[in-house]
Specification:
The complex is a heterodimer of chains A (86) and B (384).
Chain A: E1 4-5, E2 13-16, E3 25-28, E4 31-34, E5 44-46, E6 55-58, E7 61-66, E8 75-76, E9 81-82
Antiparallel strand pairs in A: 1-2, 2-5, 3-4, 5-8, 6-7, 7-9
Chain B: E1 3-7, E2 13-14, E3 18-23, H1 29-38, E4 43-45, H2 55-70, E5 74-81, H3 89-98, E6 103-107, H4 108-111, H5 114-134, E7 138-140, E8 146-151, H6 162-175, E9 179-182, H7 192-198, H8 202-223, H9 243-251, E10 259-263, E11 273-277, H10 283-292, E12 297-302, E13 315-319, H11 322-327, E14 334-335, H12 345-360, H13 366-369
Helix pairs in contact in B: 1-5, 2-3, 2-10, 6-12, 7-8
Classes of the chains: A mainly beta (86), B alpha/beta (384).
Chain lengths: 86, 384
């Protein structure tokens, strides 16, 4: 079982404590999820579905916009998240 | 329940009870240090300012020194001046006296040199020290506490462990009616819309937005090709994807309540709740500004480690990772790195609140035990 930290209750991404391997299960706010791919330590994993163009929420605030549809358990980084300003 | 502190004549309350000997200008730092050598219980305040600066910088250092003299942690102050400087010892002593602190000043030129000033200064300071010992701690409500927030030597975990843990503590203090100061404007770059939205009053929001935008422009001008070191998503390898994410990881240490006011560097904090102070991101300048604004205590998060403290304000050090806590153990007061191994952010936050109460009531921090008495006053222009 992998371990993640959900920083704010409103967040739709959590921080991975130790590298998550594809297929590993983890729990966020009492919901059991499965990693869809390998996700490095300190990186973000989606804990709920994020539609294309919707905000990725960490610290209870938007840190950017999803450039693809993101499923729970997917790695969230610069390949599917774009800063709102730049 | 409150903390055990020292009630002052103007209704403020100290977590410590210092007698200061302060220079109004750098030329007399040697005299200040000589007095402090005679009476080691004194807190010497020396600096590089007081003369030979532009108008803006004289205004900043003048209010910084006055703010330090007026800080609730100070029982009494002896100001040493030279005589021909811009920032007069008399003016600083009078500002402390106006809020009921025992205050005196001496000018080295008028007294007739180092030895005469030293002799007279020691007599005055000895009397202040005797008076200070008569004052006892009493129970004080937390609405009188102003907490400074600092992060320095950050790492990939600062925004995941230590800063969110400090955010829990900041929210707790605001709920008690207290005040927290978020400084380091540079580290807010990228969050201007979020910060503006969090301000209680729209006019404050406009000012905060303009301040952060201006800081970005200034940083680009000052750092040129190196600006990317500050204005960037930070460590992409380490998992940060956007500049907002990096900045939010920093400002989460101020908790989640609305912003009640924006103050300039070293200006007195006028409102309770979460207050923004415009300051450089460099730690010692920021600590000095917050203490001059009235902070009696600071919590400082660090990932790579910093020994820094402040002469007249206890600084509680929180590590973002357990390796650092073990490696620099004599510099760190609390390890938030345990959040990675299962301690929850609210649990670690409650531990920090307990430590805050203990330190406010007299428990010494690692930085105090190590005599980490650092001070640096922010300046804008060159010396002349």
């Amino acid at each position: 079982m992998g371990r993640v930290i959900l920083i704010h209750p409103r967040d739709n991404v959590a921080v991975v404590c130790e590298e998550l391997k594809k297929g590993m299960s983890f729990e966020a706010q009492g919901i059991k999820l499965v990693a869809r791919e390998d996700i490095p330590k300190n990186h973000k994993v989606a804990v709920s579905k994020i539609a294309l163009g919707k905000a990725v929420i960490k610290y209870g605030e938007s840190i950017g916009i999803a450039t693809k549809e993101i499923e729970p358990g997917e790695w969230v980084h610069t390949h599917n998240l774009k800063s709102e300003e730049n | 329940m409150g903390f055990m502190g020292y009630l002052r004549a103007n209704g403020s309350a100290g977590v410590r009870n210092y007698v200061l000997v302060m220079s109004s200008v750098s030329c007399v730092n040697g005299v200040v240090n000589a007095i402090a050598r005679e009476l080691p219980e004194l807190k010497p305040i020396t600096h590089t300012e007081g003369c030979g600066r532009g108008i803006q910088d004289v205004a900043i250092s003048s209010r910084t020194l006055a703010g330090l003299a007026k800080n609730p942690n100070v029982f009494a102050v002896l100001v040493i001046g030279l005589g021909c400087e811009f920032i007069k010892a008399k003016g600083l002593a009078e500002q402390a006296k106006a809020i009921g602190k025992p205050s005196e000043f001496l000018e080295v030129q008028a007294e007739g040199g180092t030895q005469k000033t030293l002799k007279k200064g020691v007599e005055i300071a000895k009397e202040f020290l005797e008076q200070s010992k008569k004052l006892k701690r009493e129970e004080i409500e937390f609405d009188k506490l102003i907490l400074g927030l600092e992060c320095g030597g950050s790492d990939a975990l600062s925004g995941i462990t230590a800063n969110p843990v400090l955010g829990v503590c900041a929210d707790w203090l605001v709920e008690q009616g207290g005040t927290v100061i978020l400084s380091e404007t540079t580290e807010m770059i990228g969050t201007e819309e979020i910060m503006a939205r969090r301000c209680l009053e729209p006019e404050t929001g406009e000012k905060v937005r303009a301040l952060i935008k201006n800081q970005e422009k200034l940083t680009r001008e000052l750092l040129g090709p190196l600006a990317g070191l500050v204005i960037s998503p930070g460590n992409i390898e380490g998992g940060l994807s956007a500049i907002q994410e990096k900045a939010l990881g920093c400002i989460i240490k101020a908790g989640t309540y609305p912003i009640t006011a924006l103050v300039d560097y070293a200006m007195p904090v006028s409102k309770n709740g979460l207050v923004i102070m415009d300051s450089p991101g460099s730690d010692i300048f920021s600590l000095t500004g917050m203490c001059a604004s009235g902070a009696q205590l600071t919590v400082f998060t660090t990932g790579r480690g910093s020994p820094a403290g402040f002469p007249i304000m206890p600084v509680i050090k929180v590590s973002s990772n357990t390796e650092l806590f073990e490696k620099m153990n004599d510099d760190i007061d609390l390890d938030a790195g345990r959040v990675i191994n299962g301690l929850t952010i609210p649990e670690a936050g409650r531990e920090l609140v307990l430590l805050l109460k203990e330190v406010a009531s007299g428990k010494l921090t690692r930085a105090e035990i190590n005599h980490q008495d650092l001070l640096a006053i922010h300046t804008i222009g060159p010396a002349f």
